[in-house]
Amino acid sequence: MIEVILLERIERLGAMGQTVKVRPGFARNYLLPQKKALRATKINLEQFEKQRAELEAKNAAQRGEAEKLAATMGDLKVVIIRQASEMGMLYGSVTARDVADAAKEAGKAIDRLMVQIDTPIKALGLFPIKVKLHPEVMIKVTVNVARSIEEASVQAEKGMALIKAAAKEAAEEAERAVIEAIGTTDVLPAPETVEGEETPKAKKPRAKKAKTEEAAE
Q: With 0-12 CB in 10 A as exposed, 13-18 as middle and 19+ as buried, what is 3?
């Protein structure tokens, strides 16, 4: 583990100015080259303290711009048209660049680096995706992946993939059919009993005497 000074807020790690311990690989491959942190050396700590006020003011201005942008986006929804199998699986996947391009077509400027896709999108349907406009400003974008604009419209109305909606409707129809069938089936009423009494048992037929015994009589 190595110590670094964060130059901006990093989710699940810390806020600007904090000194935190991270794995060497995470620092070398992400934090340091992206200029999101500095090694926590004595010289860097002193330099950061000298520039802290300036860095905090710059961050506040950028956060304000991001908040204004977020307010204009609202609950952003974008449509991405893809080919898919009959089971709804895509021939490929939807990437962060695809989401950013769809947002730009909708008139909203989003960089692909802002798009946070934790799990690759490989099926038709509606997917909530996080977009980080600023380290402290996050919005949600609904990605509607469909095979056509018409299908995307139906999915948006039903709130789920068209294939899933069809399967759900078929299951509900089958359930209704079973209920109707049970309701129309004749069922013999149970024998009435008086409270406290036992249900009468069926009488067993008496065995007929053998002909030999009747003849003897």
A: middle
pLDDT digits (tens, 9 = 90+) for 61-120: 999 999 998 998 878 999 999 999 988 999 999 999 999 999 998 888 888 989 998 888
Phi, psi of 202 (to 5 degrees): -65, 135
pTM for the predicted model, two decimal places: 0.64
115 neighbors 100 (Cβ within 8 angstroms) = yes
Single-letter amino acid code for the residue at 199: T
Residues of the chain with CATH 3.10.430.100: 77-165
| Identity of the amino acid at 154 | V
Checking DSSP bridges between strand 77-81 and strand 115-116, what pairing results, if any?
Answer: unpaired
Strand order in the sheet with 2-6: 19-22, 2-6, 37-39
Domain 77-165 is classified in which CATH homologous superfamily? Answer: Ribosomal protein L9, C-terminal domain (3.10.430.100)
CATH number of 2-64: 3.40.5.10
